[in-house]
Write a structure and sequence with these properties.
alpha+beta; single chain
């Protein structure tokens, strides 16, 4: 099922849920929702998450690797390791897996 992202038509008037935008899983075949489910104020659909994921598969990977690099730069080795590890499993990237193992070691953790 697609996930749609919404923002309030008037951002000054949104409730805590919709003021900064929110996501809704959308049943196929139904029109996009026109009002916030919490406060009922008018909202508009921004993007369809499904389309974005297909178009930006490489972009997502790049963002994860940027995040890993940020953790490494900050010396947050266990964070970097876990993120690299989970993304390596998802993307089947063996280089990333080695990077995860390296970061586990720097964190003082035993990767096995
Ligand atoms: Zn609202």
């Amino acid at each position: 099922m697609p996930i749609y992202e919404y923002e309030p038509v008037n951002q000054e008037q949104g409730c805590p849920r919709c003021r900064h935008g929110f996501e809704l899983i959308h049943p196929a075949g139904e029109p996009p929702c026109a009002a916030c489910p919490d406060c009922g104020r008018p909202v508009r659909k921004i993007i369809s998450r499904v389309g974005v994921v297909i178009k930006q598969a490489d972009g997502e990977s790049g963002r994860v690797i940027d995040k890993i690099r940020t953790y490494e730069n900050d010396g947050m080795w266990s964070h970097a390791a876990e993120l690299a590890d989970s993304h390596a499993a998802k993307s089947k990237d063996s280089g990333l897996k080695e990077r995860a193992m390296d970061n586990y070691k720097k964190a003082g953790m035993d990767p096995s």
